[in-house]
Design goal:
Strand content: 15-25%
CATH architecture of the largest domain: 3-Layer(aba) Sandwich
Number of helices: 13
Helix content: 25-40%
Strand order of the largest sheet: 3-2-1-4-5-6-7
Radius of gyration: 21 Å
Structural class: alpha/beta
Order of helices and strands: EHEEHEHEHEHEEHEHEHEHEHEHHH
CATH class of the largest domain: Alpha Beta
Shape: globular
CATH topology of the largest domain: Rossmann fold
Number of domains: 2
């Protein structure tokens, strides 16, 4: 089968670029010919809150993409369509995650409907975490032309069917690159918490800092915060000072290079995801692949991958007291080794993966 993937890819950075790399590799390993069409500019610079969109890691997760698209230039959309048409794919898989890309995705999808290719949209989110009144009509325009959909949580599946009733939607766990997996044997019996990834308001780092201060009244524990801040980092540094956590929180305001991810997860005894809202989480999947238990808010897709008191703990969102109680419970009762053992013993695949679903949808 000939398959085109349209989405951000190396040298662009981030979770979706990593996913495109993994998906291409999985499809090639299954015997398919794969074309990747990516961006030469993902966002106009004034809309990008990070330091740089380019991945400077030594470990390059390179999908061999054609960097044809500019999100703000319709001329490049037509250029990308012509390259896809020349490749003559049986299936085109478009990555979807934010309404900003609705004009591009909607117009490209309508052009692709004029070809024999089956159009599949893989949805990382249906709607953004910070909602606006235009999100729904933009998503309907973008997703309307697609034949089939893949989501990574049942919550997203329900949102999609509410938007586009009667469409064919399959759910598959979001995979993570094997390069981020380390077959460690640590018992997870220490006292180190990890918060990982881009820091935005909906991820609840302020809740975690308040909870850590409360938990430390009963148990010694330490927190690593590793990720680039899209919120002002000074706000969080002030909270660390106010809570007297200066010696107990290692705050690393940086995009963690690919080659350092597995080792960082190996250092931790629990990943904390104090999100106020969520659909799915690539960070959670990295933790599970590394047998690292998770303490997470009971929101969205997080509640679908964290089995309470089996591989982690679930708590109400936005509640520092509940999160502090879970941290104390986790460390005082030595839950880390048992949860880690459960993760190591659990089957790694619980259903068809994304690559397999794309194959089915292309037939």
């Amino acid at each position: 089968m000939r398959i085109t993937i349209v989405g951000p890819a190396y040298p662009l950075r981030g979770g979706i670029a990593h996913h495109v790399y993994s998906l291409r590799r999985a499809l090639v390993e299954r015997g398919h010919s794969v074309q990747v069409v990516s961006f030469n500019r993902l966002y106009p610079r004034f809309l990008f809150p990070g330091k740089t969109p380019v991945d400077s890691s030594r470990l390059k997760l390179d999908a061999g993409a054609l960097p044809l698209l500019d999100s703000a230039s319709p001329v490049t959309w037509l250029r990308a369509f012509k390259a896809i048409k020349a490749f003559a794919p049986d299936v085109v898989v478009v990555e979807w995650w934010h309404p900003f890309f609705a004009p591009l995705v909607g117009i490209l999808g309508r052009l692709l409907k004029k070809t024999p290719a089956r159009l599949v949209v893989e949805c990382h989110n249906i709607f953004p975490h910070e909602r606006t009144p235009v999100d729904r009509p933009l998503a309907a325009f973008a997703l309307g032309p697609a034949d089939r959909f893949i989501t990574h949580s049942d919550g997203d599946r329900k949102d999609l069917l509410a938007l586009l009733p009667g469409r064919k939607v399959e759910v598959a766990a979001l995979p993570s690159p094997s390069e981020f997996h380390k077959p460690g044997t640590r018992s997870r019996g220490g006292r180190t918490l990890l918060f990982f990834g881009i820091v935005r308001k909906y991820k609840g780092l302020d809740v975690l800092l308040a909870a850590t201060a409360k938990a430390r009244a009963r148990v010694d524990c330490w927190l690593i915060v590793a990720g680039e801040f899209y919120d002002p980092v000074e706000r969080y540094r002030a909270l660390i000072d106010d809570y007297g956590l200066g010696e107990h929180v290692a705050l690393e305001d940086l995009y963690v290079p690919n080659e350092e991810v597995a080792e960082l997860f190996e250092r931790a005894d629990a990943l904390v995801l104090p999100y106020l809202s969520a659909t799915q989480s690539g960070v959670a999947q990295i933790a599970l692949a590394n047998s690292l238990p998770i303490i997470a808010s009971r929101v969205g897709g997080l509640a679908e991958v964290v089995a309470d008191r089996v591989n982690g703990l679930l708590i109400p969102p936005g509640d520092p007291d509940a999160l502090a109680g879970a941290i104390v419970d986790y460390f005082e009762n030595g839950l880390g080794p048992a949860f880690a053992a459960n993760l190591r013993a659990a089957p790694k695949e619980s259903g068809p993966g994304v690559a397999e679903l794309i194959e089915r949808m292309g037939r």
